[in-house]
Amino acid sequence: MSDETLNTLPADEENAAAENSSALPSAVEEEETAALAQAEEEQPEEEAQPLDPNALLEVRHLKKHFPAKKDFFGRPVSFLKAVDDVSFKIEKGTTLGIVGESGCGKTTLGRTILRLQPATDGEVYFDGVDINKLNTKQMNALRPQMQIIFQDPYSSLSPRMPVGEIIGEAVAQHKLVPKTELKEYVLEVMKSCGLPYHYYERYPHEFSGGQRQRICIATALALKPRFVVCDEPVSALDVSIQAQIINLLKDMQEKMGLTYIFISHDLSVVEHISNKVGVMYLGSLVEYASTGDIFDNPMHPYTEALFSAVPIPDPDRHSKRIILSGDIPSPINAPAGCKFHTRCNHCMDICREVAPKFKDYGNGHMVACHLYPQD
Amino acid sequence: MVKYIIKRLLLCVLILFGVSVILYLLLRCVPGDYVTNKFTANPNVEMSEEKLEAMREIYGLNDDVFTGYFKWLFGNPATGTKGAILLDFGTSFVYDAPVSEVIADHMWISFALTLLSLVIYYPLAVYLGTRAAVKQYGAFDYATTVLTMVGISFPSFFFSAIIVKIFAFDLGWFDTSLGLNSTGLINPSGWELFTDTAWHLVLPVLVVVVLSIGSVMRYTRTNMLEVLSADYIRTARAKGLSERSVVYKHAFKNTMIPMVTVLAGILPGLFGGSMILEDFFAIDGIGRIAYNAMNQGDIPFVMGYNMFLALLTVIGMLLTDIMYVVVDPRVKITN
User: Fold this and answer.
1) Does a structural domain hold residue B204?
2) What average pLDDT does range A213-229 have in this prediction?
3) Does A143 contact B240 at a Cβ distance shorter than 8 Å?
């Protein structure tokens, strides 16, 4: 893990972030790239922003809205804003942890970044290319470089394919290794992921959860990716297996120089694996900082409450639990102003009306909260 | 595996026994018997009550239900039958020939008709269902849904009547006398006979295709939709596989598992014929033969025919279970 990779987001981006959040999306699911290109033209100043050469992935104002209610003619009248104006970037070889309650849009964020679902608006630059502008063929050609490991290893493997075929299939289609060496290559990948070679002919149902997750990891890594979204890869596994899988992911990161987005609701796991952490609430990032900063000094009240829930393995120390009142509001009619104001212990009048800016408060520690100076 | 199959076959015998008991009881409950139907329907022929009684005795209709069933099952020394237990179903009243012979004679006509339809509609239905599922809620999906629903909803006699009216009577493309061959055919050559039969088969096959395609298509669509929303399909897409590979390799392979059940369920229908359809089109298949026998109270034939259907059904069920092992690697038969 490299600690010297702390960097700063360009501060200019925040202004646009706050203003865009209320704009209705111009594109619905089906009309992907055309509508996106159009939305692009409306904000020409975005193009001018130079990309960070150190960042492998840069996400700008990414939005994913699902039509929640439709009128008689099937036109959407309200939207579920699963991902609402999220911007961040990840440097090569580092890990960004994304944390938040269930339903806050973590998983949707991961899938939208990989264009497994078309984004409603916003850009995802992978190695300098906006993947939302690629056509299907170009996107499929790029896919091996950006892989995903899903949460549920039980349902994410086709029950009718033996392990060797699952791992080797896409390798063959993308012609990553010559045909004659395919089996050898697959066995090699399996070995590096802790799968004995005689598993090659077996079917997924013969394996336990941990082994299945190893198969999923092998499937992703066999494509020689540069970037992997780990979508809660250990939450379906029991604790002893969790550690093995996390260590496997870390080993492979060192070996292959991978860049991860690690989505989880387990804060201790995120602390262990991440260089940076982003906290999501109702589809938006509320805090983003290096792991050390955010765990030592959580600035946003939500982050504070979230981290206070982590149990301390010391019976004599009393943790100061911050109990949040109320439920997480519906993302269909998210509260106006600061989305967290309905549950915040520090809620002020301004929080109910004005959305706070996502601002850098030094050392790349970004927070969206009115408790801190907004200018 | 072998042990399992033997076990299942023994169970089949038990099921068939139960079926035969119920069938025989029901048949004997039907008012009017063969003798009464045949000899009192014609007012020109006077039959004395004694004569009728004697006839009933000959046909075994005077036995009570238990004796009758016993004779059917274990044979009757008086008539020389060996009984159903030795696969001798006796002599048909109406057709005056051994039941098994009558079935064997007419079975293949029905089989040919149904198989021909099956070969057309099954792949077509699977294809349409797959396409509809891939483009769910698209124009293609709605169009096939509506059309196939119309197909399912038609009663076969009604649809046959419409088809015959339009294509045979109004347009005159087909022979209105129906049947399998034209009436005017004298000493036809092999090729002539073949084309003539083929031409006569078009309408009945069309009816079967239209009536059957809907359910298989809907079934395929539902299964395909379920599979397409599975996580491993998302994995396949994330791997950057082509859409073709995702749909036909990953999704379709997994759709095949439930489809096998449908295919095995078709088995009794394949040999059993269709009573209404064959009767309407005057095709001498097993369905029409059975329909006539049923109307005239031909107990041995109706028993034989229904046991034949029951046998096909239980074998179909057994085949389904065995096929599951073949298509689904997760299913293993253990004792």
Assistant:
1) yes
2) 93
3) yes
> In chain B, what residues touch A152 (CB-CB under 8 Å)?
231
Range of lowest pLDDT (A10-19, A213-222, A278-287, B216-225): A10-19
Edge-first strand listing for the sheet containing A259-263: A146-149, A227-231, A259-263, A95-99, A276-281, A284-290, A366-368, A358-360
Domain annotation covers residue B319: no
Instruction: Give the pLDDT mean for B12-19.
Output: 92
Q: How far A318 CA sits from the closest chain B CA (Å)?
A: 42
CA B172 to CA B154: how far, in whole Å?
Answer: 23
- How many Cβ pairs within 8 Å bridge chains A and B? 74
The CATH number of the domain holding residue B161 is: 1.10.3720
B252 contacts chain A (CB < 8 A): no
Selecting from A143, A144, A155 the residue whose C-beta is nearest the C-beta of B231 gives A155
CA-nearest residue to A166 within chain B is B236
Shortest CA gap B329–chain A (Å): 6
Cα separation of A249 and A259, whole Å?
Answer: 11
- b/e sequence B18-47, b meaning 16+ C-beta within 10 Å: ebbeebbeebeeeeebbbbebeeeeeeeee
Inform me whether the C-beta atom of residue B329 falls under 8 Å from chain A C-beta atoms: yes
When divided into structural domains, chain B yields a total of 1
Whose CA is closest to B256, among B320, B200, B307?
B320
B229–A contact, CB cutoff 8 A: no
- B329–A160 CB contact, under 8 Å: yes
Could you tell me if A150 lies within 8 Å of chain B, comparing CB atoms?
Answer: yes
Write out pLDDT tens, residues A192-215: 999 999 999 999 988 998 899 999
The verdict on a CB contact (< 8 Å) between B234 and A203 is no
Q: Rounded to an integer, what distance in angstroms lies between the CA atom of residue A348 and that of residue B327? A: 63
**Contact across the interface for A156 and B232, Cβ inside 8 Å:** yes
Q: Which of A90-99, A272-281, B67-76 has the lowest mean pLDDT?
A: B67-76
The pLDDT score that the predictor gives to residue A41 is 46
Q: Is B81 helix (H, G, I), strand (E, B) or coil?
A: strand
Say yes or no to pLDDT of A47 above 70. Answer: no
Angstrom distances, CA of residue B20 to CA of A67, A207, B117 = 58, 47, 30
> B224: distance to nearest CA of chain A, Å?
14
Contact of A255 with chain B, judged by CB distance below 8 Å, is answered with no
Query: What's the distance, CA B271 to chain centroid?
Result: 6
What's the pLDDT band for A113 if we cut at 50, 70, 90? very high
Residue B251 counted as domain residue: yes
pLDDT class of B185 with cuts at 50, 70, 90 = low
pLDDT classification of A261: cutoffs 50, 70, 90 = very high
Q: What is the CA angle B288-B289-B292, rounded to 5?
A: 85
**Residue B85 within a domain:** no
Helices (H) and strands (E) in chain A, counts: 13, 12
Domain enclosing residue B175, as ranges: 111-290
In Å, what is the CA distance from B76 to each residue of B53, B69, B70, B115? 19, 10, 9, 37
